[in-house]
Amino acid sequence: MKTLPRLIALFGLVFSLGVGFSVLLMLSVQAKAPITSLDASPPIFPDNPLLAPAQGAILADFRPGFDWADGVDPEGSPISYTLVITGPVETLVVTTTDSHFIPTTYLANGFFSWTVRTVDAAGNASAYQPPFTFTIQATWQGYLPIVMKAPPPVCPITSEAVYSLIPVDNPPADHPDYLHGDLNLSLRGYNLTTGATGLVDYSGSTDSGAPQLAGLFEPNKFPGINAVYRVNSWNWACGAHGCPDPAITNPPVTLISLRITPGEPIYIPERSADIYGGGYKALVLYAEEQRITLGYVRQDTVANGYAVHLENICVDPNLLALYQSRVKADGMRITPIALPALRNNQALGTALSDEIGVAIRDRGAFMDPRSRKDWWKGY
Fold first, then answer.
1. Model confidence over 2-33: pLDDT tens digits?
2. pLDDT of 107
3. How far is CA 377 from CA 65, 203, 253, 370, in A?
4. What's the pTM?
5. 3-state secondary structure string, 26-58?
6. Beta-bridge mates of residue 232
7. For a tag on the chain, would you pick the N or C end, based on fewer CB atoms within 10 A?
8. How distant, in Å, are the alpha carbons of 22, 111, 247, 308, 310 from that of 366?
9. How far is Cα 140 from Cα 375, in angstroms, rounded to an integer?
10. What is the four-CA torsion angle of 352, 357, 360, 365, rounded to 10 degrees?
11. What percent of the chain shows pLDDT beyond 70?
């Protein structure tokens, strides 16, 4: 009778071993199964996908419609679009599954650029298309019942200020000024980010001759920061003139909005070194009604010295007219090259609203404009 339990136990052991071996064999087979490849192909657009607003259009609508051709994903994945609209006051970044968009808020009068890319469900993104530019010149109308709305701020159209040209000592910019991603900051765009809305203490050496942003105001001051932003990088290999790439993340902040009183005069960030006889400190590398780019060397580039971008300002109409007098209709420089230059404590315009945007660069690289040791010494 004792042999029967032993036989049963032995049978159970053999059965258990068999089941275990089967499981191991099955896992081994699963481990050797081929791994399917992930979708790595970005969606594509047909040629010339940007449709409306058309390049160079002048619109009388504060809420224009944006339209572009449909993208196609080679893997058949669902796609969405990222639309970037950059204007004189702000940059809008919109994600949509439609190939058209109408803003839900009113845009301001002024110069705009827009571009779009497409993204598939796996996160593969196409390059941004070469941007189109357009201008809004609209007027507010009243309807019954009358609803009172504050119109967008407008810039002065007359001035008594006098400005001068100085010669530029290197070849001219190699792209039209309004399509140049190093001169016209609106082409890059910038996005609201998180971070300290105050001055930041960085370690390291300092340049005693760096432009001081307190010089934007007279008397000099640190007025406070409303918000911080990240400027987009620029891909020169995209199209004939380049296009925006993802935001610059190092340093973490590359543009700030400073508090100001609407209509308050704005001056150049002060610097001790002259770039030309007569006390000239900065060169106007680009100007349009509501933005300006300053260079602190006498060269038609941001690559060889300091440069400052100012946004949401009213460039003095006489300064703007003088700059435009040195640019041909196609956006290229008139030769011999001469551009407006400015001295310390010389007003270049006024504040459009209650804040201005400021970005600063050193040999082309965007820097953190909150750095106390570099741009705000003594504050």
1. 444 444 444 444 344 444 434 333 334 344 44
2. 86
3. 46, 13, 19, 11
4. 0.66
5. HHHHHHCCCCCCCCCCCCECCCCCEEECCCCEE
6. 247
7. N
8. 62, 23, 11, 9, 13
9. 40
10. -130
11. 86
